Amino acid sequence: MPTLLSVQYLRALAAFAVAAFHTLQWARIDFDIGAAGVDVFFVISGFIMWRTTEGRETRPLEFLRRRAIRIVPLYWTVTLGLAAAALLWPARFTDVQPTWDHVLQSLAFIQHRNPAGLPFPILAPGWTLNYEAVFYLIFAACLLIPRASRLLVLTCVLMALGFGGFFHPPAYEMLANPMILEFLAGVLWAKAMNTGVSPGRGAGWAIFGAGLAWYITMYFTQAEWDLWRPLFWGFPALLLVIGLTSVEADGGLLDLAPLRTLGDASYSLYLTHPLVIGAMAVSFGVWHVWFVPVALGLACAVGWLSWRFFERPITDRLKGPLPDATSPDHTDSQRRASDTAN
Fold first, then answer.
1. What's the pTM?
2. For 181-208, what is each residue's pLDDT tens digit?
3. For a designed S-S bond to 299, which of 185, 188, 273, 288 qualifies (C-beta 3.0 to 4.6 A apart)?
4. Can you tell me the distance from the alpha carbon of 4 to that of 143, in angstroms, rounded to the nearest whole number?
């Protein structure tokens, strides 16, 4: 499967938005809308999983193996590194309490409350990977179902989990957040595209613009949406994905190397940026006018280095010589299919 530039660009924008959200949070500047990059990642994940498996013979265990190869090495490395640092310098990592059960549950992608009572793993952004892991397990189980019924069953299961969240409302708790419906939105759009549905270049740009306008509106309203997040943040995420993938399907997307490269490194950027930005804030303070641009630039640089010299080599080695028919993660080589998380 060739690299989808639209997906890479969206990954780059989503990861950068989340990094900007956390950077500006340190600087006491409100940019909560940047957290909506997570919603874009969830829609992309559903889109890519369906697009790269429909019409192919994909074994569930092989699917899960490749998902694990994609997300586990870097996540475990950063998580264990953060836990070790917290043990060695507890005064500098007061928010991290690496008890054995907390560390093990974090590594296993099990939703749980940390020692402070919050539903976050050792590495806070890993909460999104807990949702990804649940989605992967459900998707893998659905691969056992005949193709004619697979989408229906997947839709019913995800809708049951998503709508069930309205009856158990604490945010970020597994099976208690309708954000799981964002994966389904991506799946349904992938199904539509695979059957030839695409609004074309002009309409695609209009849809993409509508998604951006929606987010801008949400930013200026300054409202807390909680369980309605899939509607107020997830729906515009879907519009971004529909819009840009439609533009690319109509041949209207240029290959922008910097944006594509940042998309390649988006998973590394997503996992490492809290540590980079936090280290900058603690070491130099956040009152400097240069803090935000320098912290964001350094986070992107470290993310790229992590991808280039750790994530990509490790992933390539673990995958082996087999063609990557089930993994939706794209790289600049155009010889692999790809995914994220994030």
1. 0.91
2. 999 999 999 999 999 999 999 999 999 9
3. 273
4. 23
